[in-house]
Design brief:
alpha+beta; Jelly Rolls; 14% helix
Length: 194
């Protein structure tokens, strides 16, 4: 039998071998000066969506260069090699106990999104990706058969970059401890260069 994998949800993963947390104090200073963003978010997690663009902060140039290079590689692999890429917005999130992020996507002008786990603590606040199939589709599940999966769990670890098309629905489970977790989010728009 021939199986043709049509319309796949392609999630990219890259590990930053040079990851460090040297800019944590800087992020906390920004948090004291900048109001939380994400005005249409249901959750109360502190974030700088719309109030501070991480990719414009020179202190993050080295990390941003690595992230942009990895996202560019992902872009080319998924068929957008003839498109120029630019970061339209970026922000950081500081999760404390009981914080979460509801199901959402990043549709609009963006094509590719990415999450970078900067500071991670062991808890249950995993990143979850959801199937694009409607809920009305008959469900079956076999953990050994990825064709039956309705969601995919990413357990955060420091230095992990996760890349995906912006339309993919995702959420973050509620934190269950008092230690803070910091993640960065990036959205990229593509323009045809041919």
């Amino acid at each position: 039998m021939l199986i043709n994998e049509l319309f796949p949800t392609v999630i990219g993963f890259s590990e930053n071998k040079k990851h460090n947390n040297l800019l944590i104090k800087h992020l906390y200073k920004v948090q004291k000066k900048i109001n939380s963003g994400g005005q249409n978010w249901g959750s109360t997690v502190y974030n700088t969506d719309g109030t501070y663009n991480l990719h414009k902060d020179l202190k993050f140039n080295t990390l941003n260069d690595w992230i942009f290079s990895e996202v560019n590689n992902y872009k080319n692999i998924i068929g957008y090699q003839d498109f120029n890429m630019s970061c339209s917005r970026s922000w950081f999130n500081i999760y404390k106990k009981y914080d979460y992020q509801e199901k959402h996507n990043h549709v609009g002008v963006d094509t590719i999104s990415a999450v970078y786990f900067y500071k991670v603590v062991k808890d249950n606040s995993n990143l979850i990706f959801h199937s694009h199939e409607p809920e009305s589709v008959e469900q079956t599940f076999d953990k050994k058969n990825k064709y039956t999966w309705r969601s995919f769990i990413v357990e955060p670890r420091e230095g992990l970059l996760v890349m995906f098309k912006s339309h993919v629905i995702h959420n973050v489970l509620q934190k269950n401890n008092n230690k803070k977790r910091i993640s960065f989010a990036y959205n990229f728009k593509l323009d045809y260069s041919g």
